[in-house]
Amino acid sequence: MSKCKRFETLHILRNMPQEFVSVSNSVLLLAHCNNDTYLCFIGFLIHSADYAMKEPYCLLVDSSFGRYNNAHMAHYEIEIKSLLGEEKNAIALKEKMCELDPACACVATNKQLNHYFGEGDVNELYTKVEHLLDSEQKEKLKHIVEKGSTFSVRTRQKDDKVLFVVKAAMDEGNAINGVSRMEFEEPVNASLDELDALILETGFVYDSKWSREREEYTYKGANVCIDRNAGYGYLAEFEKMTDEQDQLDVVRNEMQVLLDELGLEELPHDRHDRMYAHYKANWPEYYGTEKTFNIE
What we know:
Blueprint: E1 12-13, H1 16-21, E2 27-32, E3 41-46, E4 57-61, H2 66-70, E5 76-85, H3 87-100, E6 105-118, H4 122-129, H5 135-147, E7 151-158, E8 161-169, E9 180-187, H6 192-200, E10 205-219, E11 222-229, E12 233-242, H7 248-261, H8 269-286
């Protein structure tokens, strides 16, 4: 089996504005947007007058960097799912990605608990959780609440980190399974139970709870998540982000090309909806287990 590369961190900039201006040599920055649904590495070559190094110095920029240059932009997520089912199919996909893209790399692995909510008022929710957010996070969430039509509210524990997630549909799909969505996903200083309690206080109810193990890869400019989900089995998610709404169709077509070359089929929305409905009605049977089901 081909083995994908793993990146080694040389240095992390955690105080981006202050540390960045102190760097005098030409620097190659790799900006890591630490997001479970969007993980990519972007190269920047920063020139200076007193260049004195024969080779660029590689730095991994902390995820907070993203807030300095695009905090006021809406992030649109384009995501296509493909049901793999059995482990052998997940292994074959990883081998194929490494074969077709020598730069393919496993960039993260984690275990997750995901709680989905429904029936509440997102405007009331915004008021309830805003004390957990900084000013830039508030503005980003407010924009999504104002522009979205249907919403998916979630909480996530990713290893030891707790995340608050709101997704809003931007296409004919819904906010849970749609292809194009606006997304808010930010860490909060609260436990998973504490965050859940705030959401439940605003009239939301649990739709379902999920558990999964995730491997994240970079592949030809896309983020590919290979998940082992309770209920669904193995599932691949191909994801890209854009700040431009008029680029959604272009990015969507680019993603379809990736699936085609890997011999994968998109999980049809109607089948995914049936699978989700079954899981939603029976999630206590699957949550935290390795049990799976198959629904056509």
